[in-house]
């Protein structure tokens, strides 16, 4: 059962914390059995005890959790315990059930894990894109990095730089830019879209300004290269051409050189072999791709 006061309170104070608002609201309304976050001993538990005393918490134990303990939160004590222990669960599909992910998405991710591709962002995003007939902005998870950083210090450093740049621009932590917290099996996965619509409606009711900011960034065409090398556009696509008026947030420092070139143009043409930037009919720059995945457009709308 939804508690109006609790949801209003969460919408007001959660954005000031390390918790992701959409995830937290999804847990409060029962869309997710539990949520997990890294436990950094910075008052996360006391925040929950003070502001949401009806919720249960559990901390993960075991070899997986030595470097980064996990804090799980749920309305149900057993769900919190299971979620805290999810990394000790052998089956990826079982992990997904604990965290409320659609079975089809968990199975797809399990396939990636078995193939050694779990942290190959370029491969996963390209395969998800290629298997989709449409690209629903509700399933744009490109700005959700929690489960995609792995243990690579370079990726973590990129994440810190990305966060600092966009917090100044957006006025809130960039990790709030999501409706769903999982990697969808397709960008038009019906079960994921259903979750996304529910969370969108909850955010629109209780955090309309935040929801408007989230949708602004997610419902955009993206030129994707890799985890922290992508560009978001104010624009629209026609075939292999993207017409744009400007580059939009969030911004990625790794793409700054390309962004400088894009600011001189107003359309890009992306084929399997080449990326070309134009201003009107004048070609400003052309790049020969190393592979089909070395820069491709995803038209989220």
As residue ranges, the low-confidence spans are none
Strand portion: 15-25%
Alpha carbon gyration radius = 20 Å
Helix content: 25-40%
Please indicate the count of domains.
1
What does the overall shape look like?
Answer: globular
- Biggest sheet features: 7 strands, antiparallel
Explain the overall architecture.
With 301 residues, the chain is α+β, with helices and mostly antiparallel strands. The chain has one domain (4-32, 100-299). It has helices at residues 4-13, 21-28, 44-51, 77-84, 92-98, 103-114, 121-130, 153-170, 190-206, 208-218, 256-262, and strands spanning 35-38, 56-59, 70-74, 221-226, 229-238, 241-248, 267-270, 274-279, 282-288, 296-299. Helix 5 packs antiparallel against helix 6.
Quick gist of this model?
The protein is 39% helix and 19% strand. With 301 residues, it is α+β, with helices and mostly antiparallel strands. It has one domain (4-32, 100-299).
